[in-house]
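ENTRY TYPE: paired fold submission
RECORD: A
CONTENT: sequence, then structure tokens
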Amino acid sequence: MPHDDQELRLAIQRLSRRIRSMQADEEVTEGQRSVLFALANSGAQTLGALSEHERVTPPSMNRTINALVALGLVTRTTADDDARKVKLDLSDAGRTFITETRRRRDAWFTKRLAALTPEQRRVLDEVAPILREIADQ
């Protein structure tokens, strides 16, 4: 890998870590946060669907969900169509966590962007679609 490619990859990784570190509750782990955002983005889901989405085993997801329920961030409800199915969703506290985490991330990023020169902002505007394309592949 040429040095410039590695430098770009490392810069993107570092930026991603900095953005992810901005969250409403420091007790929430990265894996738990990912589940909360999956529920926020896709709505209530079953344990199996969340396991598949997060690419973890159902027992591992069950441990994560148990911790999130204990923190008051996720609720379990019986599905209307099948009493054997349990739907998992964000609680009001979970929605507050997502809202506050997004607010903190946006504030941090907006502050960093505001410090850039107009030329730097123009370059980032040109690069954003390319990075999105790479991420979506």
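RECORD: B
CONTENT: sequence, then structure tokens
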Amino acid sequence: MKIGEQATPRPKSGPAGSVRSVVVVLGDIVSHPGTTVGEIAARTGLPQSQVSTAVARLEQAGSVDTEPDPADRRRRLIRPAAEPSARVTEVRATTIDEALAAALTGPDGTAPTPDTVREVTAALDLLARRLTPSITAR
């Protein structure tokens, strides 16, 4: 997760804050569309205020949509945006190659070979395909 955070391009505008909580919250929303802040907080263990901040950042970036909960108008239902925003497109187009190479640098400062970076990237791709949100939620 830390390598992904380092590789994620910083937003050009909007509130600063933890990338990790935003990633965790977005992952939960993708796995549980139509959810509430309180439900996300219960599932992730994040404080409700941190979830609310992450949802606000995601909404501002166009990554999620919200609507009033018909059962309780005080709450909002949160779901992934129907169309990817410019920010989502930017993040999806970003590679982790530089951050991964930095993480694979030896204790003596020896840089990894391009083959090593490709091998680790392929292993991460395999894990991403095998460990989908629906599998990890079980």
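NOTES ON RECORD B: The mean pLDDT is 87. Residues 95-133 form one domain.
STATUS: closed
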